[in-house]
Prior knowledge:
CATH superfamily of the largest domain: GroEL-like equatorial domain
CATH class of the largest domain: Mainly Alpha
Mean pLDDT: 84
CATH topology of the largest domain: GROEL, domain 1
Strand order of the largest sheet: 7-14-13-8-11-12
Number of domains: 2
Number of strands: 20
CATH architecture of the largest domain: Orthogonal Bundle
Helix content: 40-55%
Number of helices: 18
Strand content: 15-25%
Distance between the termini: 48 Å
Amino acid sequence: MAAERETTDGAALNDVDRGEWTMRDADARRYVRGAVDATASLVESTFGPDGMEKLVETEDAQNRRELVRVDDAGRLLDAVERGNGFAHPVAALFVDGVDGMRSGLRDGTTAAVLLAGALLDEGFELVERGLAPSSVVVGYGIARARAGEALDDLARPVDADDREALADVAATTMTTTLDPAVRRRLADRIAETVARLADGRDDGWIDTDDARVLAQTGAETGLCDGLVLSRPADAGATGLGVTEPVEDATVAVVDDEIDFEETASVLDGGDGVRLSSPDAARRYRSELDERIESTAEGLVDRGVDVVVCMEALDESIVRPFQAAGLAVVDKATYPKEDVYRLARATGGTAVSDLRDLTDDRLGRADRVARRRVGDAVWTVFEGCPGPVHTLVAGGATAGEAERRREAVEDALETAAVAAMDGQVLPGAGAPSMAVAAAVRDGAAEVSGREQLAVEAFADAVERLPATLARNAGHDPVTSLTELRAAHADGRSAAGVDPETGDPVDAWEAGVVEPRRVFSQAVETAAAVTERLLTIDAVLYPNVQLPGYTPRPERN
């Protein structure tokens, strides 16, 4: 195909025949379809509780090469984008379309990708048979409306204090590569956290930023009513921290460095403190020490027990603070937002200057203690008045602990979504089958060619439970046939049992997901489909245009 050719070195852009570098109609659809199929196949094997893992070579936040194991489409696509990215323009457009699922809900990304791939596949087949893309889009829109009605009938209400239901949501979100007992224990802690975050709020909002998820090798899974500050033992902090537990502690939080030198000492005649002799230097040092000591004594007189600082403190500050009886926790930068979580937890306010630390900006905690867990030092603030909680997940290895942290973070978000929306659906593919059945029932009421698109929508949605069965090692055709029969008998919550491949009541099995996750997956997939199905031309695919060297301006 002419589109595979490359321009020769030195060729001018104006010399390119634009018609020669264009794909149209069937060629353009094949180009788009190939990219979509490749992207969907990339994540297909990760779908469901028995999905496989991927090993991806990518880059970390510091642009260093790293290998990561992922079993979730959202993190898989993130890893690819952090690496070399999606070079194919259609694949990049496709992934960009489902980005909202990844960043907003932390679940349902795989379903959205697979459903979009199925809808495009069915849609392209109809276009090849002579149906106009606009008719396919209209038919899909009719089917989406019917799908919404079916989900309304299928959904059940849930409250923020329904910890059993929220634990089911959390357990469903977390991968089954976790030990079932560990997964259930973590799910119970997540449900308790969501209930606590919702307690006392009248607006129905649950701020998951007030929940810190901490994973550490050798740690015991649990929930802290407050905040756990964690830093590596070799972080280079100067303060000794809380050497002895402090009961009924008053806490001061500083989000900047503590610097008692208001002006810099210079010897070159510039602005600042001018030290003209050794005596002047000694006098200046003495006055500075007195200022530090008086500040420490003033904090103690006001009842302050613990000073937490985001930045590392100089030993000349830490030593007199500790001598005055203050516990100093400095370099609290892992992560930086923890100092603000601590301020909210203790009911205080983070300040940048100790002179701004008024009594109403001090925080409180029933108990502050230090623990050493693995290669990290923890400062545990318990019994805090603010709505901040810390979920702790342990692991035998660093990799296992990190995977548990990711699983807990995702499950926390989905459980919070369920509590805020107040609606849940049965999982295990049951919503897909219920939607497919409802859409087919209503297809007869649609006149014209759009009826073909409505029926194609139902076929596409059924691919999700078929993929669940296949990834669990069962025959997808048999499982799909049995699921259709179950839903025809009125068993609207029937989904795929990963152990047997037979229909199972997802409600009774405790496989539950937020209503919004599946609904958003359908909406996202439909939007991406409409965006790509109507493409009838691709301009300049695989063309490497000559480089451009800017010329500097000359006066």
